[in-house]
Write a structure and sequence with these properties.
The structure is a homodimer of 371-residue chains.
Chain A: E1 19-23, E2 26-29, H1 32-35, E3 63-68, E4 74-77, H2 78-84, E5 87-95, H3 101-105, E6 121-130, H4 131-137, E7 147-156, E8 163-170, H5 171-174, E9 180-185, E10 188-189, E11 199-201, E12 216-220, H6 227-230, E13 234-235, E14 251-252, E15 259-264, E16 270-271, E17 274-283, E18 290-296, E19 304-305, E20 307-309, E21 318-326, E22 329-339, E23 364-370
Parallel strand pairs in A: 3-12, 16-23
Antiparallel strand pairs in A: 1-2, 3-4, 5-6, 6-9, 7-8, 7-12, 9-10, 9-11, 13-14, 15-17, 17-21, 18-19, 18-22, 20-21, 22-23
Amino acid sequence: MKSGIKSLNTRWGKRDDMIVRTTAPFNSEPVPSVLAAGEITPVDAFYARNHGLFPDIPAAQWQLTVRGMVDTPLTLTFDQLSSGFDHHTVVATLACAGNRRAELLRVRPIPGKEPWEHGAISTAEWCGARLADVLSAAGVHHRDGLHVEFLAPDVAEEARPVQSYGSSIPLDKAMSAEVLLAWQMNGKPLPRAHGGPVRVVVPGYVGTRSVKWVTTVVVRDSPSRNYFQALDYRILPPEADPETVAEGEGISLSALPLNCDILAPTDGDHIPAGAHTIRGWAMAGDGLGIGRVDVSFDGGHTWRQAELHPPSSKWAWTLWSVTVDVAPGPLSITARAWDDTGMTQPESPASLWNPRGYGNNAYARVQLHVK
Amino acid sequence: MKSGIKSLNTRWGKRDDMIVRTTAPFNSEPVPSVLAAGEITPVDAFYARNHGLFPDIPAAQWQLTVRGMVDTPLTLTFDQLSSGFDHHTVVATLACAGNRRAELLRVRPIPGKEPWEHGAISTAEWCGARLADVLSAAGVHHRDGLHVEFLAPDVAEEARPVQSYGSSIPLDKAMSAEVLLAWQMNGKPLPRAHGGPVRVVVPGYVGTRSVKWVTTVVVRDSPSRNYFQALDYRILPPEADPETVAEGEGISLSALPLNCDILAPTDGDHIPAGAHTIRGWAMAGDGLGIGRVDVSFDGGHTWRQAELHPPSSKWAWTLWSVTVDVAPGPLSITARAWDDTGMTQPESPASLWNPRGYGNNAYARVQLHVK
């Protein structure tokens, strides 16, 4: 169990062993062994990454406005959304852009950013209406270069200036079958702590674009100018100062990069000698599949292929495992994934360090001790 | 100029300074400085990668058969193809899966494979009919998991068993607007040495799928079983023996991985001290853009951002340049590209070595000397 601020009345129904990074806003990640238990993460273990306090919007009062570059601006109630459009279910993994930031912090400090370890990633079965169907009902314009912005009422004190949360994705992605306006998570009404009554789910994209408590959708001819699109959630060059960079500088995060991690056993574990099954996840870039996962017990000198557990959807992580006999002493485990085009990951977090600590997709490494 | 077998009567109109790797079949790459001259590679400098002797098919005798999972099998003459379908032009970079193999050879030998250096990549303006339009005319079936196979008459003596060349791509890619049955290259009739009268051009995919002298298109429910799809052009794990692997083992190459290279100056050059402009290319995975290119003169300890020259198509490489003052002594230059999702390349060819030497997309490195 890692250290963290615990406050029982603000745990939002999460498991007792969750690592709580901040309580207001609520930011929390599960311990790796809990994530390793299965493809679908239970709601009480699903990571929480937030920039503001949770809005409290009863479904009966929730409304969604669709406006901008559409023929017919719409306002939909929860009943209209959930009864007027076909329902679709997608198993999708969401991951925070800062997942695995702790490894970047060991390269060089990143002031003011949470030291997410292995757990700012989780998988759920989401159910809702296709965003494409709602946009089509509004007569969305079809032109190259359009973007779809999502606005929500949660206020982010950290933004410059203070503002409510927003983000955008390209129209092409917004019109894809996997992008949902979701009101169910793992078969139950979407909890307030995960964006209920209705959130956006953008499978394959960095979690920040899956806007919770969404109330407004705007079709625009440029990306959102919200702080979290135009200034934050960007890969800046190492020498940039995040306090002074101009709007639009750096690489805006969108599709998740090819990545993997080792979930069990984990850093610092003491395990008995003998046979152990090492478990982890791998995920390829937007819509690609995993071709191979290699695991090394000698720092990457030689590799063994892990067994891949076929995901239930192309938008879900691929869990993998490999069983190995381990002898007493220190044990280093390294893992790397290859996508189904033959691309693999960068070796070292040192080469990926960036001023906001996003997008660490270096080889996964854990150090443990065999008794 | 690198060493190579020269035979004037089998140079197929290529520049005198091309590096000829084999004459029959004809395999040849331009020197890097020629590639650096512009976005479009002149035909006389365009790399040539072949597995058999060139078929000699006059346009008037060429025919294309479209069969398999289609409602109406078709046979089209050159006139029917070029007058019966809309013409489309795409600027696209083709790259051999073995480009930059020379760096892998320095890690560990790869017997029987050509030591391609920096030049097994080139860019042309291709003109032809969309494959999608031809498939639609044949009433192609639309189902998940279908593949489109291309067959050609050039016989590959290296295949097991000896067979003519073939390959396939997923139907989704085959139906994309950028995939052509091309009969023009840089505004002129497609030369015999580049697949004339008609070849497939699959932008964003490894060059081996852009089948030259194509005469047959088959819609199938599985990938081609041709040697070059089922056995070769796969990333095998390091310990695999390419002589004994089973059909379908390894990761089949499709979309090109994120990659870059330094073209001028190049390995072993002696250059005077003072200001120099370093030039190279970068290319992102299938349809993505380049977000940033970093260049280092201290082995990757510090980086400078290169200037990006906007490509004329999303299927063309992005040329980049950076001007630097260099002092006398040995000079090492390293480059790496980031795509527009924030993904970058693996650092070292050592971690990418594979038994057939494909897909080297490690950081680009050249060593030269400043006088």
